[in-house]
Amino acid sequence: MSEYQYYEFLAIDRLLEQSEMAALRALSTRAEITPTRFANVYNWGNLRGSPREMMEAYFDAHVYVANWGTRILMLRLPRDSVDEEALRPYVIDEVMEYWTTDEHLIIQWRRDEESDEDWIDGEGWMVRLISIREEIERGDYRALYLGWLYGTNSEYAEDDTEPPIPAGLGSLTTAQHALVEFLGLDEDLLAAAASGSPPAPDHAKWRPEMAQWVAGVPVDEANQYLLLLLQGKGKQAEAQIRHQYAAYQRSRSSSGEVAPTPRRSVAQLEQFAERVREERVEREERKRQENLAEQRRQREEYLATLAETYERHWKQVYQLAEQRIAAAYDQARDLLVDLHDAYALQGQGDEFERRLGEFCSTHARRSALLRRLDEAGLTKST
To answer: Of 92, 159, 269, 285, which sees the most CB atoms within 10 A?
Structure first.
């Protein structure tokens, strides 16, 4: 099997200049390069440039997929749009990390696991994951928690405590569901973690609290937000407002005004995940047994209808045999299996064997047909 590596980079906040595109072309003669995108597949060899340096210089998002299991998502955001203090607790070695430049903060999610998939394709992941960037800018840190949670599968102290639990882990966005799939995050572990997550914010219920905070924003600070809006920097203004509001909420929690969400150790999460897994397996087994019972009921109803019109179905079996083609032989075999079960359900197995014996004698020279009956267990080879 040949090697497969997929690289895709996306520029969001600004278009690439011609000189920058020329510099990127020097890294790859085959890549698709536009003012917003760089993409290439490598079956032999590697990208000559450093994805980390390309992100620092040019791009706002990067997806990497290799057929040996490595998957990487990088997102670059304006440095003042992310609260580094709030981000830091989600960092976990070799999986979830971030670094900064003068103007930007770059977050990386990384998976290094052998893949058991038959077909690996990196195309399409960027479209599914890119919304996470805007979610983080808006103060939604669920994607950061998902990266940390995936990282608990590596060597990690069992008594370490989880980072702040974002609200809404039980109702992830479409992009966050894609990240779960991208990382291969254990669904039972996610369900265990989500059990301790508050519901997603209901902004209608929060309006009084928000109004109270807005009323207390100093005039000079509010004017700065308005100025950013007039300058076309709406995202930056929203990010700063959300950071200030989040800090206000944290201060209420630390003062005891709002009860903080209890945090769990990694060992506790793993134990709860095992219980979730056992309960899921039990539910699936019950569902399987219910489905089997329903299938048996439906088949018995069908077999009862056969018993009402035996002669018509025997006539159909003979007609199918006379066609002397494989498809008709298959239909005859299937119908005979149904007749066998219908006679057995009525306690008339001996009568079926007598009728089947007559049928086989009539068509004794049709070896292909008899072979099918033998393989279905209706007759015995001699």
So the answer is: 269
